[in-house]
Amino acid sequence: MKSKNILFLFILAITLFSCGVENDTKTIRLGHGLDISHSVHKAMVKMGEDLLERSGGKLKLEIYPSQQLGTERECLELLQIGSLDMTKVSVGVLENFAPKMKVLGLPFLFRDRQHSFDVLDGPIGQMLLNDGEKYWLKGLGYYDAGSRSFYTMNKPINKPSDLEGEKIRVMESVTAVNMVRALGGSPTPISWGELYTSLQQGVVDGAENNPPSFYLSRHYEVCKFYSLDEHTVLPDVLLIGTYVWNKLSEQEQKWLSDSVKESVKYQRVLWAEAEEEALREVQKAGVVISRPDKTLFAEKVKGIYEGYKDDADIYPLIKQIQETN
């Protein structure tokens, strides 16, 4: 961990009191990096309202959006040391903390959106959420983050060769780095909060993300080409630190779990609406949207799967996911 991160965590550890108690009300603090207009934040607000009602005022959710408490990586580190209670991160970042999660970041893993829901809502998804507990991170549920596609400043990405020589921003994810490299691009990890400026200054030529993130971040002001190759279906994960979870009673855990389930259902509805709005609005702003042949991209990344054949943890998971109906 870098020295500035250590200082950051130390300050947060002093200023935040995990699961603080105020007049018989336990306050659970949730930090995340998204804007308040994002469907995930709106779903969290609903979760907080439901939790307060379910618990009869005994549990209260306090939300800190827009990276107020740090980047996704920093929030995960805060959870691990018990200085923050809950957070939402992309699976792409979580794989650095809970290695089995990397399977969800593999390109073209899911046949379609319903297939991804069947996997995430089933035993495989639950196993992956539980697996994080050994790293002091308990997964509570998956928020829909749609499919990720490439957006660029200078030209559309209609075939893998169009990525050659292009610097593409990726998350701090080995899987994402390997994917862009396999497709011929130059992967460049940059934090989400720094990406707009990096695009403006030409540090990178483009990035990859889902339609609402492309729209709400205003990256469409810089990148005028959006190529919907939909290479990954990468969910967001809602987590609670095991330090905090284990301090909750069984009843309190049930109140929270039930509120999370309702939040997930609500967010999926909001997400579908947000995707349609995002694509409509970026087109109005002059973005050229293309839908390339996905098989060209899928063929180029087959080697990534071959690289996991000797991995006793990941390869069986790949097969189980592919065989899920």
Q: Strand percentage, roughly?
A: 15-25%
Helical segment tally?
A: 14
Order of helices and strands: HEEHEHEHHHEEEHEHEHEEHHEHHH
Query: pLDDT below 50 for ≥5 consecutive residues: which ranges?
Result: none
Structure summary, number of beta strands:
12
Straight-line N-to-C gap: 41 Å
Radius of gyration: 20 Å
Percent helix: 40-55%
Note the overall shape. Answer: globular
Query: What structural class should be given to the helix and strand makeup?
Result: alpha/beta
User: How would you sum up the major sheet?
Assistant: 6 strands, mixed
Average pLDDT for all residues: 93
Describe the structure.
The chain is α/β, with parallel strands linked by helices and 325 residues long. The protein has helices spanning 3-15, 39-54, 72-80, 91-94, 113-120, 123-131, 174-182, 195-200, 211-216, 242-245, 250-284, 294-300, 302-306, 314-323, and strands at residues 20-22, 25-31, 59-64, 86-90, 137-143, 147-152, 167-170, 186-189, 206-209, 225-233, 236-241, 288-290. The strands form three sheets. Strands 1, 2, 3, 4, 5 and 11 form a six-stranded mixed β-sheet that branches. A four-stranded mixed β-sheet has the order 9-6-10-12, sandwiched between helices. A two-stranded parallel ribbon has the order 7-8. α2 (39-54) runs antiparallel to α11 (250-284). It is globular, with a radius of gyration of 20 Å.
